Fold this protein.
Amino acid sequence: MPTDGIPAPRNLAEFEERLRRVGGTLPKRLKQCAEYVAANPDKIAFATVADIAARAQVPASALMRFCQEMGFSGYSQMQKLYREEYSQKWPDYTTRLASLRNGGGETPSGLLAEFSEAGRSSIENLARSVDPELLRKAVTVLAGARTIHIVGLRRTFPVASYLAYAFEKMSIPAILHSGVGNLTQHHMLGEGDALIAITFAPYTADTVALAEAAAQRGVEIVAITDLPTSPLAALDALHLLVSEIDVGNFRVLAATMTLAMTLSVAVGARRRLL
């Protein structure tokens, strides 16, 4: 039975909202379950309890306990939500990619096919992972900001630097916090400013620290991140969730860059109307 009589989420949106609210407060093993489920929605629809538990590196009993904590009677009830969402959208490129790998192995053309497929799938999932209303609010906040601060370090730096470039070309005041020389620029956060913070698991400590400093100063935050349990989710921010598909240990940034282009163009258009 569900824990404490909590009703089961009726759809994925309700489930993801519950994850966002309680994910950070769960015990360690249940938090591992939450992070894996949030990061791999496409796998939940067809994998068994044993498969998911092994991938999340937890006992099957912990995964069952997680499902109950979320309000489900068990794993099958949670899985049903994902099957209803993804059964009609399951990609049909597996056979093509398998044939290419068998024929070419780790050739450049084989890698190109894999990265292309990962990017296509990530962009296809973007419309489902980003809440349209939160996206609208994010554009409103950024368009009305005195200065837009941008931070995205390590692998998300290309996205942050693109945003800074786009805003500069549109004559929108923006500051890129690059961390060059290990210099912090927290003091530049001011009243009426907004911050775009970009980080994915494993989260970059300096990005989270700047976002926390912004929150303490009352600066509005637009967070581009991957999981409802992200440290940015604990802040009073507008969370735009992006799920990127990995190829090996390399994460494509196709969906994240698409979202960045959407934000920059939408903000530029909105500011011209203000």
Q: What stands out?
A: Residues 48 and 75 are 9 Å apart (CA to CA). The two ends are 53 Å apart (CA to CA). Residues 108-129 form the longest helix (22 residues).
